[in-house]
Design a protein that fits this description.
By secondary structure, the chain is of the alpha+beta class. It has 7 helices and 15 strands. The protein folds into 2 domains: 201 residues, no CATH class; 107 residues.
């Protein structure tokens, strides 16, 4: 009977270079190592979606260094090592590490040594001004100075991943903020040809990348729906600010969350206390609902273009109408 082959694994050395004679604060180090593991795991799921999951173990290697052991495990039984027919798994994991930027391409894991995620973020100083589709399998990233960077689809997929965006700061930038840390050095154990050095000048680019929305190369499609309807105030701004309003559509329990009110006359009446809205008041409004789609990103903005009529619950106050088309169906309630 043929014995199972040992579990395929890759040992990544993650080394903080610096003066650590007094040791490293465990409360600072633990979130860093956790984030590094999450970063590698998420990148593997992104680039190798059909592969088995990976297990990541961390153990001290030398002073200031940590051996991050990355291995496959059988999804059906976490205690049982996955039997591999050949060593493709180890090559896949090394490829993921190269596209992230933990190791270099000197060992020709990926031919041509394409730009890694870390180096792309550093070149862009955070995020691109825009992204365009180039030839199949490649994207063109344009920085704020107009320079173009050709990016492979693998690095593009990592850059667009919001989980990586949320994790990368603690794993890469945070430890470099420590004044004792000079740089981060990474390589595959016993193969220093793969050595990659991450320096302090990546801190600000990663900080800029890790916050806010990531630009997309997908085309934007926009639909606008215009409606006129009666509503009751629910959440208002007594200072007449144009955002953060919400209403209940009259005759129903449906809520209408408004992102902007463009009717300056109405807002001025709120500011001057001429209109003091109550929950039972009625407003006849024209709203523009803008639905924006960009790849997997979706957004909906609801703007009040005009407040056509305002009816208080105890007495009627109507605006002056210059255009009979704007009159509500009831003309005046």
């Amino acid at each position: 009977m043929q014995k199972d082959k040992p579990m395929e694994k890759v040992d990544l050395i993650y080394k903080l270079n610096g003066d650590f004679e007094q040791g490293i604060n465990i409360f600072e180090l633990s979130p860093t190592l956790l984030s590094v593991g999450q970063l590698i795991s998420e990148a593997h799921k992104t680039l190798m979606p059909n592969s088995e999951p990976i297990a990541i173990n961390v153990k001290p290697f030398k002073t200031g260094s940590f051996e991050i052991e990355i291995m496959m495990f059988a999804q059906s039984n976490l205690q049982q090592a996955l039997t591999l027919i050949h060593s493709q798994t180890g090559k896949d994991i090394s490829e993921v590490l190269q596209y992230l930027g933990f190791i270099s391409g000197a060992s020709v894991i990926v031919v041509g040594a394409p730009i890694s995620l870390f180096k792309l973020i550093k070149k862009l100083k955070g995020k691109p001004r825009s992204i365009e589709k180039a030839k199949p399998g490649e994207y063109t990233y344009i920085d704020n100075s107009g320079n173009k960077i050709l990016v492979p689809i693998q690095t593009h997929a990592l850059f667009q991943n919001v989980h990586i965006q949320q994790t990368i700061y603690n794993g890469i930038a945070k430890p470099l903020e420590n004044k004792e840390t000079k740089e981060i050095e990474c390589y595959i154990k016993n193969d220093e040809r793969t050595k990659e050095t991450i320096e302090k000048d990546i801190i600000e680019p990663i900080r800029a990348y890790s916050t806010g929305e990531i630009p997309s190369a997908e085309a934007i499609s926009e639909n606008i729906n215009i409606r006129k309807l009666w509503v009751h105030p629910r959440r208002i701004s007594v200072e007449g600010e144009s955002n953060s309003w919400s209403f209940r559509i009259a005759g129903s329990e449906e809520l209408l969350r408004v992102t902007n009110i463009k009717d300056e006359g109405f807002l001025n009446n709120i500011k001057s206390n001429r209109y003091r809205l109550a929950h039972s008041d009625k407003l006849y409004i024209e709203i523009h609902e803008k639905q924006k789609m960009q790849g997997s990103k979706e957004s909906l903005q609801c703007e009040i273009e005009k407040v056509i009529d305002y009816v208080r619950s105890d007495e009627q106050i109507s605006l002056e109408f210059n255009d009979s088309k704007n009159l509500p169906p009831s003309e005046k309630l």
